[in-house]
Structures are given as C-alpha cells and as structure tokens.
Amino acid sequence: MKMIEINEKNNLKSFKDLLNDYLIKGLEPEICFTLYDKDYMIIPLKEKVSFQEVGNKEIFFETIDALFNEKLFNGKSLEDEFENIEKIGWI
Questions:
Q1: What strands lie across the sheet with 38-44, from one edge to the other?
Q2: 81 pLDDT exceeds 70?
Q3: Given this model, what pLDDT does residue 8 score?
C-alpha cells in the first residue's frame, strides 16, 4: 500500500481534489485511512463514492462533498475529523 503523509501539502482541499480527480477519470483506487484506531476505506467509483468502516457495510454518496459533510463519526463529519486521521494510503 502506498502511504501519504498529512501535512500542509496534503491538506483537506488537496485530498478532496485528488478524490474528485479519481472520480472524474473513472479510476477506482481503494483509499484507506485510520481514525481513532479504526480503519476506513473510500473508493471513488464511476458515478458515486463508496465509504465503509473496514468489515462493515458500504455507504454510497453521490459526491465527494456529500461524503465529507455527512456526520459519520459520533456526530462529526470527515471534514471535521480530517486533521485527526492517523494515516492515509491507497491500493
């Protein structure tokens, strides 16, 4: 798995831009990240975005923004929690 560091060069906007680019191009990498010791996966599909806590059911969103604004983590969104992500990688 390739890992990226979260720093000023890999901020929320650039990460969302990367996911949108994958979505537009029809690429389907499995983006994995760890948040509060739980593993999650985002897969940008051709016309939707898949999100899941690894080992649980997928949830589908129409856009990257819809995913990042949904309250998925104890009433907080991925956008709210982005700075707390421990690591991000993709397959």
A1: 2-4, 87-90, 31-35, 38-44, 49-53, 59-61
A2: yes
A3: 44
